[in-house]
């Protein structure tokens, strides 16, 4: 009956920060995740040792009548399912990361007068979090720019993004990382990482660009996602340089440390990780991201360090190769020892626990 609900799921961009905070919360209260069976939480949350309950929830697609009706039905069912969870477990607090699951959970939290905490990772806050923020005790945002998207500044806490300590532990270990991966410490390494699920579009564009950059003699680390993994194995065999392939890797810190530049999407997690590791990057924001939030993230990073932003609709092999060449000529990366990112998970958890105890 003393549980804290965490509504987070879908991709690793929500789940990994949520798990970081949950590790600290669980020292004082049991934690239960609420998600859907379609997201990565189905695998990652139980592996981390936390309870997980499923509800039905789906984003609205107004371009298709069938999809709209399916979403309507799922969200109505999910509303009753989440209400049942509140009656059964009577949570002490709710932490939401922004999604339709979050909206359903926050509705019941408001009804049952359970304190709500919002965790926003993106520079441009999502629709769900903007709505929920009106009912919240605290709104945790990573940087100053992210606070501008919320109306009520009294609840905002600028606290950094809850990056995992095990990822940041690889900062400054370039040589060790390359040697552990079997790479040459003297050669430049290119990292391709299309988000927690990979990006088939980026994978294809990179392979088409390879003939244009082969003379640069990069070593390659490629996180492909499951859709492109088998094809990547075949492509790697065609080239003489070291080409490491991973379908998914839970701790990319070793890759960031080993890399000299990156090609990536610009979800919140990877954006702040690239920032902390000082990696120059070609960023290709996901066009389907809600309200274009990945573009805002990419533009923010571009103000902090060398970045080339390419619209995925204009992604061409020659343009990608040119961006890689221009970034490869830059000086070595510079790490940011930012305590707001290393310790934000502990600080967020501490504020939530303090509020719960204050309400006893």
TrEMBL record:
Cell location: Cell membrane
The gene behind this protein is: murG
Q: Which family does it belong to?
A: Belongs to the glycosyltransferase 28 family. MurG subfamily.
Entry's EC annotation: 2.4.1.227
- Show where the Glycosyltransferase family 28 N-terminal domain sits: 4-140
One biological process term in Gene Ontology: peptidoglycan biosynthetic process
Q: Which residues form the signal peptide?
A: none
Is Transcription regulation there in the keyword field?
Answer: no
Q: Cite the Pfam families for this sequence.
A: Glyco_tran_28_C (PF04101), Glyco_transf_28 (PF03033)
Q: State the reactions this protein catalyses.
A: di-trans,octa-cis-undecaprenyl diphospho-N-acetyl-alpha-D-muramoyl-L-alanyl-D-glutamyl-meso-2,6-diaminopimeloyl-D-alanyl-D-alanine + UDP-N-acetyl-alpha-D-glucosamine = di-trans,octa-cis-undecaprenyl diphospho-[N-acetyl-alpha-D-glucosaminyl-(1->4)]-N-acetyl-alpha-D-muramoyl-L-alanyl-D-glutamyl-meso-2,6-diaminopimeloyl-D-alanyl-D-alanine + UDP + H(+)
Q: What is this protein called?
A: UDP-N-acetylglucosamine--N-acetylmuramyl-(pentapeptide) pyrophosphoryl-undecaprenol N-acetylglucosamine transferase
Q: How does it sit in the membrane?
A: Peripheral membrane protein
Q: Which GO terms describe its molecular function?
A: UDP-N-acetyl-D-glucosamine:N-acetylmuramoyl-L-alanyl-D-glutamyl-meso-2,6-diaminopimelyl-D-alanyl-D-alanine-diphosphoundecaprenol 4-beta-N-acetylglucosaminlytransferase activity; undecaprenyldiphospho-muramoylpentapeptide beta-N-acetylglucosaminyltransferase activity
Q: Which residues bind UDP-N-acetyl-alpha-D-glucosamine?
A: 11-13, 122, 164, 196, 294
Give a yes or no for keyword Cell membrane in this entry. yes
Q: Say what the protein does.
A: Cell wall formation. Catalyzes the transfer of a GlcNAc subunit on undecaprenyl-pyrophosphoryl-MurNAc-pentapeptide (lipid intermediate I) to form undecaprenyl-pyrophosphoryl-MurNAc-(pentapeptide)GlcNAc (lipid intermediate II).
According to its record, what are the GO cellular component terms? plasma membrane
Q: Pathway involvement?
A: Cell wall biogenesis; peptidoglycan biosynthesis
